[in-house]
Amino acid sequence: MSVRVLIVDDDERERIVVRYVLEQINDVEIVGEAVHGLEALLLCQEKKVDLVFLDISMPEMGGIETAYKLHALKEPPLFVFVTVKKDMAVEAFDLGAIDYIVKPVGQARVEKTIARAKWKIAHRDVIDQMVRQKMRAQIDFMLEKYKNYESFSNKLPVREKGKITLLNQDEIVYFESQGKKVYISTIDEGYLSNYTLSELELRLDNNVFFRAHQAFIVNLNYIREIVNFGEGSYLLRLINSDKNIILSRSKSRLLRQKLGIQ
Asked: In Å, how far from its chain's centre is CA 17?
């Protein structure tokens, strides 16, 4: 594995020394040099950089400020401070530096730094791969779940009293969270289910059903009236139900948008 390195120092002689030392080490590719932090940041955005050798005392933008800004890049590189200052190692490591080298630069010391960088890069790549695999597995799971739901897109299975009842979604008036259960009110009857409202939001047709409140999902086709309840709140009065549902100001804006009400 080759480590792509950027050298940042305003002193040309110091850059020559660091370059020479790095050129003696296998698996190191020097991708560029910069004389201050701003130039270093631009090069990191233009090129793939794994590791920055960073002087602390530089004009325009010093090493400490540059290190802060490296963290903000989309793909931040590792960095090591190379400096004449002996008293800033604690701050350097607090910033996330993988090493702190006091000039003059020696080859054995830099070889240890490169070995440490290789280990961190390999470890980061393994973590990235694990994250990608986990995300892929989650996406596959959601797609499979969606396909299962899609098979009975207009049916909602409710398990109770030793049987499973398939409810037509267009006959459901509202859902209400009641502790660990969700009550389902239909045109004719009511059912207690083991669903959560969050699960139902994923399963139901969001063109028809609306999360009107933390505890309620309502079928838009059964809203009879939207009544001003004061201070930006509203009441939803429903067809085929005596239940009145409180609608907050934020939810009322979403509902008006959904229903095309100005």
From this structure: 41
Please name the CATH architecture into which domain 3-129 falls: 3-Layer(aba) Sandwich (3.40)
Contact present, 25 and 114 (Cβ < 8 Å): yes
- Tell me the three-class secondary structure of 157-184, residue by residue: EEEECCEEEEEEHHHEEEEEEECCEEEE
CA dihedral 31, 34, 39, 40 (to 10 degrees): 60
Looking at the predicted structure, is the pLDDT value of residue 140 above 80?
no
At residue 212, what is the residue type? A
pTM equals 0.50
Looking at the DSSP bridge assignments, the partners of residue 247 are 234
Q: Which two tokens stand for residue 9?
A: 């120092």
Architecture of domain 155-259: Beta Barrel (2.40)
For residue 202, the Cα-to-chain-centroid distance in whole angstroms is 20
Q: Is the pLDDT of residue 84 over 80?
A: yes
Region 165-194: mean pLDDT is 91
- Give the model's pLDDT for residue 35: 94
- The residue extents of the domains of the chain are 3-129, 155-259
Residues 106 and 255: their CA atoms lie apart, in Å, by: 68
